[in-house]
Amino acid sequence: MAKAVKIVLAGEGGQGVQSIAEIIAEAAYEEGREALYIPNFGVEQRGGVSVAFLQISNEAIGAPKFETGDIVIALSDRAVKRTTRYAGPDSVFIYDTSIEGIEGDLPKNGAKVLGIPAIQVSSTELNPRVFNIIIMGAVLKATGVVTLAEAKAALEKKLGYKFEQNPKLRELNFKALERGMELVEK
Questions:
Q1: N or C: which end of the chain has fewer CB within 10 A?
Q2: pTM to 2 decimal places
Q3: First vs last Cα of the chain: how many Å apart?
């Protein structure tokens, strides 16, 4: 990884955008990479648009801000509208296919636009509570910023106390991570 990989994650407050950005940054750090995570919250703590800016590199990261993400992920209609400006011609823009009425708001500047059914998969195959972990898996597959093993270790570090209380949660979260990766492969 010669240059920093720039990631923008956006969703409604409460969708777990900040949590997965923090977990990915932790996983990158544990792999010996430089990681810089900057949270940006809407006016409301829950219900406003929440944006996470994340950079990961093998070298020192020169500036915390960036104009164009290598990958931009939007998890709500308001997040789509707010983040299209971060998508450039070489960006991958990922959104959830359940979001309605955004066709005119998706980037038209040459970015690769990819819709994935994360909400549907979490609701029908797994559990709605692991929706954000599915998204985390999609980010990992699309960017390759950290290995699956290190991502699982970071999840264990962040959620281990919950996994100890209910061991089935570990399996559920790991399955969601892998399922998110599969959605991007297709």
A1: C
A2: 0.87
A3: 24
